[in-house]
Amino acid sequence: DLQATLAPPAAGKMMKALVMCYSVIGFTFYLPSITGYWAFGSQVQSNVLKSLMPDSGPALAPTWLLGLAVLFVLLQLLAIGLVYSQVAYEIMEKNSADVTQGKFSRRNLVPRLLLRTLYLAFCALMAAMLPFFGDIVGVVGAVGFIPLDFVLPVIMYNIALASPRRSTLYIANTVIMAVFTGVGAIGAFASIRKLVLDAGQFKLFSNNVVD
Length: 211
Description:
Protein name: Amino acid transporter transmembrane domain-containing protein
InterPro entries: AA_transpt_TM (IPR013057)
Largest sheet: none
Keywords: Amino-acid transport, Membrane, Transmembrane, Transmembrane helix, Transport
Structural class: mainly alpha
Helix content: over 70%
Main location: membrane
Organism: Aegilops tauschii subsp. strangulata
């Protein structure tokens, strides 16, 4: 969809955008993971900010830096919520909207605001009720995000371009697919195992978040 909106030739521009996108993602996602494990070892929390702000003792980073990190996390969650909730919004508004009236008419605007508010309130209630954020994120990341972000794209790329099987590009894509399939399988096994082990500590609406 994005490529279709670019002025031709779009392929080169799209490649630059993808390189920049994955560079930023790799830096912002893997840097905290690597440095967090390097600093705290196996004792690192699933939310690295909790490791930097222990329950006992002083914070291990400047207050302004921790505040900035929390702000960026909030902005990321808002962006993710907007993107991943679009399917739910589309389903709700398809059944509640009146197509004969304007998009911002009172008839369509009021139900849209009401339904979206109720949906977000329900999501917030579920998040507060099930305080094991790290375990759930681990399962979702291993089962959902890794295949969608790193495995399926290279498979579709190889199929769409029909690259020769002995070409460098085809081999590189196959290696990426194999490596991240293994990473996803290991991550799924480890995260589900941790979820099972932590199940005895789960309490609804608990203030003690299980990591």
